[in-house]
Amino acid sequence: MKIRIDEHIIETEEHKTILEVARDNDIFIPSLCDFQGLEPFTGCRLCIVEVSGKKGFPPACGTYVEEGMEVKTKTARLQRMRRQILELILSEHPNACLICREKENCDEFKSTIRKVGEVTGCVLCSNNGRCDLQDIVEALKLDTIHFPSVYRNFEVKKADPFFDRNYNLCILCGRCVRVCQEIRGAAAISFIFRGTKAIVGTMWDRPLIDAGCQFCGACADACPTGALSERAVKYDAAPDARKETICGLCSMGCTLEVDSTQGKLLSSQPAEQGPVNHGQACVRGRFMIRDVFSSPRRILSPMMRKGKGLEEVEWDEALTYVAQRLKEFKGKEIGMLISPHLSCEDNYLLLKFAREALKSRKVFGAFDDSVYSAYQRMVGRQNLLTHLNYRIEDIGQADVIFLLGEELPNTHPLIWLEVLKTVKNGAKLIIASPFDSPMNRYAVLSLIHKPGAEASLLNFIAKDIHENTDSEKLSRIKGFDAFQSFLNRLDPSQIPELTGLAEEVLRKAARIFAEGERRAFLFGSRLTLAAEPEQNLISLWNLALERKAQLFPLGGESNLRGTLEIRKDQPGGFLSLSKLVQALSSGELKALYIVGPVPPVGKKKPEFLVVQDSHTSETAERADVVLPAATFLETEGVFVNTEGRVQKFNKVVNPRGKSKPDWWIISKIGRKMQHRDFTYKNPSAIWRDISRSVAGFSRISRASLNKREVFLQEEKRGEKRFLSPKVKPAVEQTSKKYPYLLCCEPNLDYYRNMIFSKENRGFRKIRDARWVMVSLEDAETLRLKGGEEVVLESTNGRCQRIVKISRAVPEGTLRARYIPGDDADDTLARLYTSQTEEPRLWRPMPVRIKRGQ
Predict the structure, then answer these.
(1) What is the pLDDT of residues 142-174, one digit of tens each?
(2) For residues 332 and 366, which has the higher predicted lDDT (pLDDT)?
(3) Rounded Cα–Cα distance for residues 287 and 752 (Å)
(4) Regarding beta strands 800-805 and 789-792, do their DSSP bridges make them parallel or antiparallel, or are they unpaired?
(5) Residue 403: strand pairing partners
(6) Do 345 and 638 form a contact (C-beta atoms < 8 A)?
(7) What is the C-alpha to C-alpha distance for residues 281 and 305, in angstroms, rounded to an integer?
(8) What residues pair up with 26 in beta bridges, in sequence order?
(9) What is the structure's pLDDT at 738?
(10) How wide is the angle at C-alpha 103 spanned by C-alphas 98 and 106, nearest 5°?
(11) With left for phi above 0 and alpha for psi between -120 and 50, is residue 229 left, alpha or beta?
């Protein structure tokens, strides 16, 4: 359609507001309550316009365009009314600086600081120079306020992590309230009171941390004034540079804009046009980027062990020594541990270095790859037609979403936002988990089952659907007869024993799932870290095939997909950490090169230990050589996110100290070991090799990553068919000898060897990573009181815990969270380093609890 705005004739689409069309065409209409992604609020009334044929002054943010519409935005009457509205807003906002006649010369003459308890003007405000209110006052040329000014005299709230709340600067635009409710789904804040007492706050004025705040920073990003200000940069100088990059702190791959001044990293904000995050972020990307760069635990210089301690040396000395010592060992005596936090270029070169320079196939993975490895093992053995790529937006097409055991707001926050949006649009959410969760309030059905009962749960749902639907079309699919025979043998009377759920509850889940036309399964490591992960996946696969549901596997770390893709085409997969412990204990490994996070692996140290990392750790303190690596903020490369999306991240600041990119370090050592293939000058040269030799990256040029959306190339093979699960999957049961199931949750809040809850006090408040939860019934049996300190008996007696009593934990189950690399976490770390063939994070353990120390 065509409309006219002032003197401009504009072609536009329907379902857009006048304000959106004006902004798309660089026509300024003032507004304070409108914000990207939010429904029209029409609260501030600054965007009023005149529309031919319409009475009054409709708000541009809430008026949709029509064919032939004529709009006026700058008449004298409109400007006069806007100034009056703005005066009313400013009457309850510190305004001395906004209308000061000398404000143009203020920077030249002011000699004050901003560290004051009471903000009475812009020069004392942390948001000075980046405030929407300032911009609109300037645009409307307001220089006088005809109403009496009132200072509201609210206490500045500083009890919560990461940002302060100064509601004396709040203009009640509602952006923060609406973004928290409409986009983030937390609803932690709301308008309270009325009239002159109206304020944004929480129920009973509790801290945000008690109100369910996720500390994603969306409210602070939406705030047009300084009412919500990031504490870490509140008093820093204004940034002199802003660069865009990809976040490397989780598997989502969000696009961030990173601010810096004079080479010092200040803060990060989500990019509005990010293809994955669309202007949103999580607590890690929003508030932990600065700590990754500025941590006091950064390794800033090469170090070598001389005597009993580590001493700083120059790069050449350290690299020469490493090259010489590695030559002393045979390939089978050398191991390498790599990290999924490194770029594709870094890990490609590390694997090449292990294979060609060290002649070693002992490459260990410091990560949980169970989601993809179990899936690919199942697919590979059955030769199925399947793929792992998807788009987050695909979830929005589903009308039934089945979520298996993931705490999405913590593990995959941007996927949770898509789920939340889909549910608000009418989709039904089913959540199956051993534990209760705040997500359950959005679910139409919550299946709180026994730990390890996932396969049984899915099989019984499949059986109920099979009995109540026509299976003529399914009978044409290979393997259907065997699958039907398996379902016929299932006895519904065993549902309570196997799953802990009533039969009618599973039948209800089956009906809801069967009624949907477009279905989606979301699953992660909780499903694949069980006793029999492939049985879980087989049951999931069969149910998805029966109802034509799409599978969405959810990976963990930032470049796990890319790391596994590079390794896939090379001989041998990644060896587990349990095998690393065995090799060290037996003396099979005499040299170890570590480039990734690793939990304590015992007191026995190899003859030669090299740690290449960005942050120090207990392992680094025991090393013979420590090499300082740059973070993803100080170099460039390629990440592959959980969707399979290939994205290039950019260097935003120069490396701190003497740290260098990982690919640079390995190239130098390779050359010192007289290997001519390690002459790379930059990541682009490495990428050319990757695109030629790794199937998933074939035909992907580095230049194309800046121009279009690129996904991994996937191999498709064979035909879809039903698989044969076990008649009665193993369900881990308690007994007198094993009185509890200790269910451990991987904690993804870390980057390389930097653990966020150890690094940042604010993060520690919101993610208490060292706890054990017990049910109310178990607490009474054990005579425990909430918050009482207890000990889980361990090999060294150091593992203290605060026991939390929770109604979210089933009886007979202990729910624990651990930190990778936590040296005090001996009992839980042994799950990583068990002498079983593969370490299990969900397994029965005899746990004895006694009161007090």
Answers:
(1) 989 999 988 888 999 999 999 999 999 999 999
(2) 332
(3) 17
(4) antiparallel
(5) 431, 522
(6) yes
(7) 41
(8) none
(9) 64
(10) 130
(11) beta
Residue at 757: amino acid letter:
S
Q: Tell me the mean pLDDT in the region 112-136.
A: 79
How far apart, in whole angstroms, are the C-alpha atoms of residue 786 and residue 803?
7
Q: Is the pLDDT of residue 713 over 50?
A: yes
Question: Pairing mode, if any, of strands 334-338 and 591-594?
Answer: parallel
Tell me the per-residue pLDDT of 367-426, one tens digit each, with 9 for 90 and over.
777 788 777 777 776 666 667 899 999 999 999 999 998 889 988 999 999 999 999 999
Residue type for position 67:
E
CB-based contact 367:596 (threshold 8 Å): yes
Contact 425, 564 (CB under 8 A): no
795: confidence class by pLDDT, cuts 50, 70, 90: very low
For residues 304 and 270, is the Cβ–Cβ distance under 8 A? Answer: no
Predicted model pTM = 0.90
Give the tokens for residue 831.
């799950």
Rg of the chain taking only CA atoms, in angstroms: 29
Angle at 651 between CA 411 and CA 265, to 5 degrees: 75
Q: Give the residue ranges of DSSP H helices in 705-800.
A: 756-759, 761-766, 776-781
**With contact defined as beta carbons under 8 Å apart, do 649 and 245 qualify?**
yes
pLDDT digits (tens, 9 = 90+) for 68-85: 999 999 999 999 999 999
Alpha helices in 383-473 (DSSP H): 408-411, 413-424, 454-467
Catalogue all structural domains in the chain, each as residue range(s) with its CATH number: 241-294 (3.30.200.210), 318-368+559-711 (3.40.50.740), 370-553 (3.40.228.10), 741-851 (2.40.40.20)
Phi, psi of 429 (to 5 degrees): -115, 125
The C-alpha atoms of residue 665 and residue 350 are separated, in whole angstroms, by 10
Alpha-helix runs per DSSP H in 121-205: 132-139, 175-178
Q: How far is CA 802 from CA 361, 585, 805, 816, 841, in A?
A: 42, 32, 10, 11, 20
38 closest CA partner among 55, 53, 17: 17
Which residue do the tokens 């993809």 mark? 372
Q: Which positions ≥6 away from 188 have C-beta within 8 Å?
A: 180, 202, 208, 211, 212, 213, 214
pLDDT surpassing 50 at residue 774 = yes
Q: How far is CA 373 from CA 97, 367, 586, 642, in A?
A: 61, 12, 27, 14
Q: CB-hemisphere CA count at 13 Å for 657?
A: 24
For residues 230 and 290, the answer to whether their CB atoms sit within 8 Å is: no
746: left (phi over 0), alpha (psi -120 to 50) or beta: beta
- Between the alpha carbon of residue 825 and those of residues 33, 601, 791, 793, the distances in Å are 48, 12, 11, 11
Q: Token digits for 694?
A: 């790794």
Q: What is the DSSP letter of 207?
A: -
CA angle 676–682–688, rounded 5-degree value? 75
Residues 6 or more apart in contact with residue 379 via CB below 8 angstroms = 386
What percentage of the chain exceeds 70 in pLDDT? 87
**Tens-digit pLDDT profile for residues 606-658:** 999 999 999 998 889 999 999 999 999 999 999 999 999 999 999 999 999 99
Strand 519-523 vs strand 400-404: parallel, antiparallel, or unpaired?
parallel
Q: Please write the tens of the pLDDT for every residue from 542-584.
A: 999 999 999 999 988 899 999 999 988 666 678 877 788 788 8
Q: What pLDDT was estimated at residue 314?
A: 97
The angle formed by the CA atoms of residues 247, 372 and 448, to the nearest 5 degrees, is 90
